[in-house]
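30S ribosomal protein S1 structure dump, as promised
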Amino acid sequence: MAFDNESFEEEESFAELFAASERQQETSRIVEGEIVEIQADDNRALVGVGDKLEGIISLDEIRDADGELKFGTGDKIKVMITGYYNERPKISYKKVLEQEKTIEFIDAHKEDFENLVVEGVITKKNRGGYVVEADDVSFFMPRSLAAFKDTDDVVGKKIKAQVVKVDAEDNSIVLSRRKLFNEERKKKKEIIDKIMADDVIVDGVIKKITSYGMFVDVGGVDGLVHYNEISYKGPVNPAKLYKEGDVVTVKAIAYDKDKRHLSLSIKAVQPDPWAEVESELDEGDTITVTVSNIENYGVFVDLGNDIEGFLHISEITWDKNVKNPADYLEVGQEIDVEVIEINPKTHKLRVSLKRLLPKPFDEFMKNYREGDVVTGTVTSLTDFGAFVRIDGVEGLLHNQDISWDKNTKAKDVLKSGDEVEVKIAKINEDDQKISLNRKTLLESPIDKFATTNKVNSVVKGTIRDIKDFGVFVSLGDGVDALIRDEDLAPLNKEELEIGQEIEAAVANIDTRRDRIRLSVKKLDYIKNQAMLEEINDTESHSLGDLIKDQIK
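structure tokens r here:
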């Protein structure tokens, strides 16, 4: 008999190799012995086999499935003498059973073993091949038919192999792992060729589910259904839809001959719902969907026909401070959305919820005007100011409009969540921006200054800054004033220093523009005028006294 271009004539007799490995031709024989002593402490029994010779067997060979001894002292027992060691016979009860099992196997299959596959464990390795045991039957697998590398450590390994020869005369059964592989490859190729034919749809059984897809058995061949090929919705978690053992209908979509990878698809069996979407939906349409999944970056919505759309977090509400979509929506909730993008080629559908909601800025414009005083909530603080929400719309309260004190910033007096009263300073409809003012609602230091000081009043202050055009003077209580260069005389500007005290006259108070101008020059003029008046008063008084004296 020949198979796969292999010939028994080219090899050493498998039966001979097997027999040699077991040393059976010359020394192995079955005899009836008697158990003469059981040495439980040493886990062994002494068995007399005639001619006053005793062999030793392990008690494990004569235990039943429950671990109990099947024989006792004086019982007759069949054993196989496999050789001698220091004139003491080497015996085995187990090998008698194996031989009996082997003979039973041969009798049962000697006429029909062509397609017989056994599964056993490799128990020995010799120069000719391997001894395989399965169900107490010993098999021999020649090295040339084993399909192992020389470096493989296979003793103790569980294998499957095909029976290729049964020899009743030698009580030997030969296995071939190589032939089994060839038969399996041939069978798999036939299956793959069949299912790779056009439009062939088959049922398969899910064998294993992983994070990237499912391995499905289709008639003895495993194929991978990638998670992209499960649903037209896009990548899905297979563990949420299926379990191992489920039957699924699939179609083969690719086969890599080099890697022997078969790719299967579940969605290829189903009609493409995107064709329907392309013909019936347009951008701008309003549709009803169901929230199917919520992520930090947005929400997936189900259209009900195996298509999912994506609702980005920025399209949920007009509120710009959305932290988590779960604060607005929940899984299973039905909502109306507007279609804002359809791409059947990339299977991309984007929708918007906020576009069906009233725009907060439009509502704001209906209810408020510039100059209105309102109460809002601080939503965030920045280095340049604070954002304040008023009826769903945010306005900017700039640092310069927080307080009359120019050194005060929003972070110094406000925190997120504070309620603050502000005045709507400006509304920019084109940019939809709102400017707010808080300091105009507070008493102006300039107004307070004007109640106690008038033009020509003499004041003292401290030089705060020196500019090219003049000197800024701090008068205290948040009041600053400017002395222009032309009003510094008779002082020399080059001699002035920041922090120096300076005296001047009030030249102008502009409460509308919050500005005060001082003048040293005017102060000098006022002082000179006062001095002249004093001199004139003195001279007039002296002349009057002289005239009175003359009259007398």
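DSSP finds nine helices and 32 strands in the chain.
lmk if u need the other ones
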